[in-house]
Amino acid sequence: xxxxxxxxxxxxxxxxxxxxxxxxxxxxxxxxxxxxxxxxxxxxxxxxxxxxxxxxxxxxxxxxxxxxxxxxxxxxxxxxxxxxxxxxxxxxxxxxxxxxxxxxxxxxxxxxxxxxxxxxxxxxxxxxxxxxxxxxxxxxxxxxxxxxxxxxxxxxxxxxxxxxxxxxxxxxxxxxxxxxxxxxxxxxxxxxxxxxxxxxxxxxxxxxxxxxxxxxxxxxxxxxxxxxxxxxxxxxxxxxxxxxxxxxxxxxxxxxxxxxxxxxxxxxxxxxxxxxxxxxxxxxxxxxxxxxxxxxxxxxxxxxxxxxxxxxxxxxxxxxxxxxxxxxxxxxxxxxxxxxxxxxxxxxxxxxxxxxxxxxxxxxxxxxxxxxxxxxxxxxxxxxxxxxxxxxxxxxxxxxxxxxxxxxxxxxxxxxxxxxxxxxxxxxxxxxxxxxxxxxxxxxxxxxxxxxxxxxxxxxxx
Length: 462
Fold this sequence. Notes:
One of its GO terms (molecular function) is RNA binding. The protein is mainly α. It has helices at 6-16, 38-45, 50-61, 78-83, 85-88, 94-99, 126-141, 143-156, 164-174, 180-183, 220-228, 251-261, 280-296, 304-311, 320-326, 358-371, 374-378, 386-390, 392-395, 400-424, 440-451, and strands at 34-35, 76-77, 105-108, 121-124, 161-163, 192-196, 205-209, 301-303, 331-334, 341-344, 348-349, 352-353, 429-430. It has 3 domains: 18-47 and 219-354 and 428-437, no CATH class; 51-130 and 361-398, Orthogonal Bundle (Arc Repressor Mutant, subunit A); 143-213. The strands form 5 sheets. It has a 3-stranded antiparallel β-sheet with strand order 2-4-3. The chain has a 3-stranded antiparallel β-sheet with strand order 5-7-6. The relative contact order is 0.15. Mean pLDDT is 81; it is low at 7-21, 392-397 and 433-462.
C-alpha cells in the first residue's frame, strides 16, 4: 500500500494535536516569607472575646423561658449560663468571663426563698441594653443587604446550596442575626429554601438557592472597574496589592506577578471547569473567588478554617489553601487569638476598615463597652465580693488574685500558640522591618497595660 506524501503526514499530525489551552504555571512554587503586619494583627486581636461576649449578650436578651423579667431587664441564673458555656464558646469559667466586663454584666444575689440558698443571677447593664436596641434597629435596616450577601454566597456555589450548619458557622461574618432562620429567611421565599441534605446524613439540612439573580452576579472587582469605565467581561483586571513593610519580592517572582496580573479576569460567579488545573489562569480565578467571599463578609476577614470548610462547596481544588499564602499582597494571615485569620488587605488602612458596614460600627461599640470600666474594676480585685462568697461552689472559689493570674496565663498561651501557628503555616516568618523603631521600654509598657485589662495600643511608626 503506498505511503502518503511527507507533507500530508505532517499535516495529519498537526491536525491531531490538541487545541492550545491556557498556559500552565510559569512560576515555580517557593516558600513565601511571612512578615508580621502589626496593624492587621491588631485588627484581629482587638476583637478578642467579642464573639463569646456577643453570644452571652444574645442569651440574656433574646426571649427565653429560662429568663426572668424585672423592671431592670431580663436575668439568668448563673448555673444556667454555666450549662451553656460550650455553646457560647466561653474561653474559660463563666463567672470569670462575666467579671471581665463589669460595664456590660451585673452580678446579683436575690434574697433566699423557702430556706433555699440564694441563686446568683446575671443581668445586662443599661448600657448593654441600649447598645442591643441599636443593633436590632441596624439589623432591621440591613435586612435587604443581608439577604443579598447570603444570596451571593449561594450563587458562588456550583450546586447553589450550602449546608445549613456551615451557614450557621458563617453567620457572624455575613452579618446575619442570630435567629436569621426565623427572622430573615421566611421573608425571602423567592431567594431561599431549607431542604434535606444530599449527603445522606440523617436530619442534615441545606440552604438552597431558589432564584439566581444575574444582576447580583457581579464581583466587587468588576463593580469597581465599571465605575472607572471601559471594562468588559473577560478583560484583564489587576488585584490591588498591599505588602507589609519590609516585604520584598524576588525579581523573578515580581516578573511572574506582573504577568499574572495581566491575565484575563474570570468572574467568580462564572463556571471555571474548563480551566487547566494548576494553571496561572485557574489560580487567578481561585484568588477571585476568595477575594469575593471576603468582600461579602462584613469584617472583610474570617478564620482560615471557615474558608477551608467553604472551599469544597465553592468548587475550589484542594490546593487552594496555598493560594492564600502565595499572594501575600492580597491576603494576610494573622496568627493571633490562637487561630489563623485571613484578612483582605485592601479593605484595611492600618487596623481600620476603609468602608465600614454599620454592623461593624456597632461591634466596635461593643468592644469599647467591654473595655470600659476595667481600670476601676482592677482596683477592686483584692477584695472578695459578697456574691463570690455565696456561689463559690459554681466558680470553684476563684479569688481576684486567681483571675488576674489566669488572665496572664491566657496571654502567655496566646503568644505560644501564635509561634506554633507560624511554624505550622509552612512559610518563613519575619517581623516588620520597622519593629526596631519600637523601643524596648514601649514594648514592656504595652505588655503591662494589656495585663491590667486596658485596650492594647499597637505602635506602628509613620
